[in-house]
């Protein structure tokens, strides 16, 4: 079932053409990751999909009643303002404690409910943001660099949790990531964006495409080959990160 269909999308801000003729389709159950250099339009694309920005041209189509969970790139919280995880989960509107508990559990952060948001570690904060995004059991989960600032164990941990959420909800996942090696092993499909989509397909296909190699070099291709080798002899769903 298609969760999202984008055709001929342009986004212009001021005199800046940020996105040009973007086409994208996402099916239920898929994990699709957008990669691209800084300033290539990744956040703009996600914000346009969630409706925070308007398209200048083109079409964004989703099934009627589709629910979206969104983890934004940055969260600006005043560290001097007392705000517990429980209160944060109920912003901007209240949810039943059953739903809050279920979401925290899904995101692997059930022990954090009484903690202050400002006291959370980077990895704990990302899990709480994931919990908030899954509160309403979304059909489509959209995440903008969800593991920014985490160490390699935190990153591996987060992606394991995300995979378990995806299986439990059966949702589609669209995310932006700079962790190319992890992206290549956790995504069903990768989209390489540089104002327009320069290549897309399975991780293997994208990692060896000339457009991707021109942008990111051969490192990921080698890591992917290594991972395939490691994976065959390992039972862990995500091996250690290189
Ligand atoms: N409101 C705006 N007006 C003009 N230009 C903008 C506006 N918002 C974003 N841009 C520009 O659009 C381009 C794409 O920004 P965007 O944040 O989507 O990139 P990104 O790929 O997510 O970058 P990063 O990897 O650094 O997070 C950048 O050059 C940015 O400066």
From TrEMBL:
Q: Which UniProt keywords apply?
A: ATP-binding, Cell membrane, Ion transport, Membrane, Nucleotide-binding, Translocase, Transport, Zinc, Zinc transport
Q: Name one Pfam family in it.
A: ABC_tran
Q: Where is the ABC transporter domain?
A: 4-219
A single GO molecular function, which one? ATP binding
Q: Which SMART domains match?
A: AAA
Record's keyword annotation contains Ribosomal protein: no
This chain belongs to the protein called Zinc import ATP-binding protein ZnuC 2
Q: Provide one Gene Ontology biological process annotation.
A: response to zinc ion
């Amino acid at each position: 079932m298609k969760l999202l269909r984008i055709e001929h999308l342009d986004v212009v801000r001021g005199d800046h053409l940020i996105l040009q003729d973007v086409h994208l389709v996402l099916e239920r159950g898929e994990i699709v990751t957008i990669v691209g250099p800084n300033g290539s339009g990744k956040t703009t694309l996600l914000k346009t999909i969630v409706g925070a920005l308007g398209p200048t041209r083109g079409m964004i189509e989703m099934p009627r009643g589709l629910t979206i969970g969104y983890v934004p790139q940055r969260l600006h919280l005043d560290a001097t303002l007392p705000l517990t995880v429980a209160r944060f989960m109920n912003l901007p509107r209240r949810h039943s404690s059953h739903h809050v508990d279920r979401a925290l559990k899904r995101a692997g952060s059930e022990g954090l409910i009484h903690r202050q948001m400002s006291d959370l570690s980077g990895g704990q904060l990302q899990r709480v943001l994931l919990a908030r995004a899954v509160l309403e059991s979304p059909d489509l989960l959209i995440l903008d660099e969800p593991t920014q600032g985490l160490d390699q164990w935190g990153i591996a941990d987060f992606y394991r949790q995300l995979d378990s959420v995806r299986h439990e909800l059966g949702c589609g996942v669209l995310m932006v990531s700079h962790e190319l090696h992890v992206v290549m092993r956790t995504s069903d499909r990768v989209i390489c964006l540089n104002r327009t989509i320069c290549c897309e397909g399975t991780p293997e296909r994208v990692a060896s495409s000339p457009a991707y190699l021109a942008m990111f070099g051969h490192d990921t291709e080698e890591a992917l080959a290594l991972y395939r080798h490691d994976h065959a002899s390992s039972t862990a769903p995500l091996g250690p990160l290189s």
